[in-house]
Amino acid sequence: MSYPHFHPERPGDLPMVMAEDEFRREFPGESEHLEFKQGTTWKKIQEAAVAFSNGDGGVIFVGVAPDGRITGVTDPGERAREVHQAIQGVSNPGRYEVHELTVGANTLLVISVERRKEGFAQTSEGVVRIRRGASNPPLMGTDLSRFVAERAFESFENTPTALAPTEADPALLDRLVTAYDWRPEGWRSEDVRPLLREAGFVSLQRREERLTVVGALLLLVDPSRIGCRAFIDIRRYREGEQEPDRTWTVSGSAAEQIERATADILREVGSSTAVLGVQRVDMPKLPPRAVREAVANAVAHRSYQNAGSAVRIEIHSDRVRITSPGGLPEPVTVEHIRVQQAARNRTLLDALHRMGLAEDLGRGIDRIEDDMVADLLQLPEFEDDQSFFTVTLRLVGTFTPLERAWVRQLIDRDQLDARSAPVVVEAARRGAITNSDVRALLGIDSVDARNLLQRLVAERVFEQRGERAGTVYVVAASAGAPVHVRHTVEELAQMVLVMAEEGPITNALVRDRTGLDRMAALNLLQRLVTDGRLQREGTRRGTRYSRASA
Predict the structure, then answer these.
(1) How many angstroms separate the Cα of 306 from the Cα of each of 141, 174, 219?
(2) What is the rounded distance in angstroms from the CA atom of residue 254 to the CA atom of residue 216?
(3) Whose CA is closest to 269, among 395, 418, 369, 82?
(4) Which H or E run includes 402?
(5) What is the rounded distance in angstroms from the CA atom of residue 367 to the CA atom of residue 294?
(6) H, E, C per residue of 112-169
(7) What is the enclosing helix (H) or strand (E) of 42?
(8) What is the DSSP string of 312-334?
(9) CA distance readout (Å), 163 to 169, 174, 219, 345
(10) Average pLDDT of the chain to the nearest whole number
(11) Could you say which of 246, 284, 424, 527 is the most buried, measured as most Cβ atoms within 10 Å of its Cβ?
């Protein structure tokens, strides 16, 4: 196999394992698109990432000496984290990915950096570098001026429109002025005009003021007047149907669209009810803040240059899909969406944040994920095809409304961190839980698991029983766990079906996840097979169950 044309835009061309002689043959030395690094020094990683971003892209092999000698890296997970931190300090890097590559007995890190399609990259010290041969020299003097002039661009949100500021809706203007705390006593619209220009909502063109794109989005009742589909299309689907049974449009300013669409979604998906002790608890099937943030993310980060497409929301019986025109802004990718930040429309995001409708840059995705976890729901799913970005929020999970209500009560009392919720539920189901169980459940190491368990003991959610290898943790009586955390048959069926979406399941796995005994788990699985929702394969100990074909 040969990789002479391996390029960072096609990282999948590179295998995960190579022999040493094969690696040396295919990558004999540094070049215009290839650089070797022995370690993850911030400065050197930044210089290479900037140079490749400003050129045609390139690949950095970490764990290879400049002469091509393979040294490998220790603790590749920690080294990858250092790489992400280093590139986070770069201004406007191109898209990048970090992979592990095993070469012989050594592990390397492969950093593939794409060419930046808009603007240019700089190191954290403000230096602009380019790739020349196998080096990354800084640009200076006239070379720098020429390069910047060729690559610089104005954000589309700050582009002036043909609309005058006098066309701004008074109520929307008042809302914006309040958000920015621009309130001189007895103020008039003329008084804040300089502030609007300074913030980027108004532009002066040939001595005439014009609303910018972002100004129109926030100050017009109908922002689609700027010439694009600046509204939200919503489609509702009944269970099992391929075509929507209802469609409608959400219009208004960008802020109003977020508020109205969020309310529409929450109304359509409805709520769940659980009785916790003597208290009846009604809970939205999706956390409101996560829904609002997902809608705000679509409105704030979409490409308004893509005039032919609107933000689209699909409401299904088991999920909500929110799709925005334009892929993720550089350098963000789905793989490291939580550790890398960028805003296509920074001014719009800032205004929405001041209005309390969006998290600050870099916090939105964290908020969506954390709120879904806190409500014991599946993590959001992200898709990016460079033309559209989609967030999927699923309404189903392996936890029941009763468990969700109980855990939410603990979180509201500040006894429980949201990401510890699955551990507490599993302990209630099983009767006890161990450090090993926590490691398997959350995918963390022994030290992190021990720290998590000790925090739960300190908050009087858990009680510790036994010592050393025999230590187990049980839910404390003061935590108020529902007795045996019982489930209805249909709730158990839904839990098993969600498990089967991840791959074939066994009786043992169902027992482990639900707390059922062997016969009860077998009866449930047989019922789902009879109902046509699961299909059985194999016999005896080799029996597996998978989702039935539609």
Answers:
(1) 36, 29, 20
(2) 9
(3) 395
(4) helix 401-412
(5) 9
(6) EECCCCCCCCECCCCCCECCECCECCECCHHHHHHHHHHHCCCCHHHCECCCCHHHCC
(7) helix 42-54
(8) EEEE-SSEEEEEEES-PPTT--G
(9) 12, 18, 11, 19
(10) 86
(11) 424
pLDDT tens per residue across span 409-450: 888 888 888 778 889 888 888 888 999 999 988 888 999 999
The amino acid occupying position 358 is: A
Give bridge partners of residue 165 from the DSSP assignment: none
The interaxial angle of helices 401-412 and 421-430, nearest 10 deg, is 130
* Bridge pairing between strands 311-315 and 271-276: unpaired
Rg (CA), the chain: 27
Please say if the pLDDT value at position 7 is more than 60. no
Structure tokens at 455: 């925090």
Q: What gap in Å lies between CA 528 and CA 489, rounded to an integer?
A: 11
Which amino acid is present at 308? G
CA 468: distance to chain centroid?
38
Strands 319-325 and 388-394: antiparallel
pLDDT in tens, 445-492: 999 999 999 999 999 999 999 888 889 999 888 887 765 455 567 778
Mean pLDDT, residues 183-198: 77
Q: What is the spatial distance between Cα 311 and Cα 58, in angstroms, rounded to a whole number?
A: 34
DSSP state of 226: G
CA distance 395 to 318: 5
Peptide bond into 482 cis (omega under 30): no
- The per-residue pLDDT for range 347-369, each reduced to its tens digit, is 999 999 999 998 877 688 888 98
Q: Report which of residues 5 and 353 the model is more confident about.
A: 353
CA neighbours closer than 13 Å in the CB half-sphere of residue 309: 18
Question: Residues in the chain, how many?
Answer: 550
Look up residue 540 and give its DSSP letter: G
Give the pLDDT of residue 549: 78
Phi and psi, residue 328, nearest 5°: -65, 140
Q: What is the 3-state secondary structure (H, E, C) of 266-303?
A: HHHHCEEEEEECCEEEEEECCCHHHHHHHHHHHHHHCC
pTM for the structure as a whole: 0.66
Element (H, E) at 109: strand 106-113
- Residues 367, 374 contacting (CB under 8 angstroms): no
54 within 8 A of 87, measured Cβ to Cβ: no
Cα-based distances in Å from 145 to 34, 120, 141, 297, 423: 27, 12, 6, 35, 57
Task: Give the C-alpha distances (Å, rounded to integers) separating 362 from 93, 312, 332, 350, 368.
Answer: 16, 23, 11, 12, 12
The H or E element spanning position 252 is none
